[in-house]
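Our working data are protein records whose layout never changes between entries. An example says more than a description, so a record of this kind follows.
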Amino acid sequence: MSAPQSRFVLIVDPVLGCNLKCPSCPVANRPYSRPVKSVLTVERLAQILDKLIREVDGMKINTWLYNWTEPFLHPHLDELVRLVKNKTGYVGLSSNLNIRKTDVLERTLLAQPSGIKISVSGFTQEIYGRSHVGGDIDLVKANMRRISDFMRANGLTETKIWVGYHVYNDNGGVEYLRMRDFCEELGFAMDPYLAFLSPLEWSVEIAEGRADVAEKLADVVTRLPLGPTDVMQMMKARLPYDRACSWQKDMIALDADGNVDLCCRTFEQHLDANFLETSLEEIKDKQNRHFFCNRCRAVRGHQFDRFTTPPVIKSYQDDVLCKALGIEDASDCPVDKSAAG
């Protein structure tokens, strides 16, 4: 039997903006220098994919057309999806689904991306609105039903639809169960996972003891089952130190203009490099020498990855997750079944 093919993850934001103002996200809450009106063109994405195919030497490429922004704001998202499928295969999307112009949504569904994650944090507006600020959960649920009906009516079976339920200290119990039951009704998978503070810069600053940052973000941090300091203490107590970083290995994050970020978890750490003008080898060298990585490693941020979690850490996190969801029997606690990010 041949060895499994190794995978490289390409993360590209189709746009440089979002339609919500979530308090745990920097896009709408911190000034930054990226032009908000830039969009990823089909031509630019084709150039990015062609270059990456040449440089990864036969590795399978999984493309995520999302990171910090809302992909369905792109007017021609369906064309990007088709391009990726034709060139490299897997293409994943993640959306808050606060979409009123459903033509883009339906055209994208017809393009049949590999997976679409729907990001939610509650079933009622009172709870959902605490973290998805500016969002309308009734609109989200209407769009969820629209997706289910549209896929069934058009015989669309290639796309996995799943709901990423961000678990806080105050959205478990009946709130969670009602969303779980709604997902079952629609035929969607559901993956509840612990909510964490983004971007990585904020978490590192709080773990370093920056009281001013912790105070500014207190309303968010106090809702987290595991805050940045908790995560650092958990990692140091339960996992041996390893300098290797899973957030940079075989992965690259780009904005809509093709500019390279340090990793997909950082928001303000840019490499001063455009992917189309810089070799992958040179980009990896810039990543390895970046000053922020030493700060991140000092608080174990580089080892904290829910997709490659060692069993000793996953067991601890599952216990925290069950408690936050109000599930007393650990055997009934849902496990992470996602594969797309």
About this structure: Residues 32-36, 336-341 have pLDDT under 50 and may be disordered. The beta strands are 7-12, 60-64, 91-95, 115-120, 160-167, 189-194, 251-254, 259-261, 270-274. The first helix runs from residue 42 to 55.
